[in-house]
Structure prediction request, 245 residues.
Amino acid sequence: MHLTSMYKKITSLLFIFYFLIIGCDPIENNSRIVFNLKVTDEENQPLPDIDINASLRDTSIGVSFFIFPSFEGFEGVIGVGSTDTQGEISLISLDPDLFQNEIAVVINGDEQFGMSSVNQEYGIVTYLLDSIANKATLLPDTVLKRSATLEIEIIDVLDMEGSLAYTITYSPRIQQFRFPSGEELTSDTVEGFGEPLSSEELTFETLQNTIALFSYTITLDSGVVETNTIEIPINQDIVQYAFEF
Prediction:
């Protein structure tokens, strides 16, 4: 076993041990629950060795134990695993009390906060559980999209008096889904406003085979207004787009 892999497993066991010691209320009688799911790429090919973890999100923890800090919003790992050669997994997790806590099943996210991809080629999918109907929960088949970087440069090339306002809507690398209610967060929007006096560079972590929307309004002091929306296909690892005004 590689040292990195061994360290990850030890860290996960320490988190689980932490909840067993101080988390008597969040965990129901030290029982277990199983999450079953399959992970594929966009061509429906199974993805093996994709790390998956179940994370307990609890804001009521207020004590420290040994090396673990005390802070609100602590996220503790209560189950870890990875997909087999068929892209499938039966993830065994501790069984939380969902009246007091929220559980998230994080696919291809790091084991502590689920904010960084373990396999950098792909994005992250997180299921936030509304409820757990039984001890074996079947989650939807999950498609991981390849990651990409979108670079947008806003360039002032004309000597004009006026202002620029824009919004950029794109697919973030981390996609979140409510289960089983079906609510989803699969896009994000940023806004910008300013005088056309200098260039600006923006970078976004996104996903391939998606479309980013760049909507802008240029208002000149003369009263002339130009408004448009530009579609930017995300079709490779790095997509660069220059907007000149």
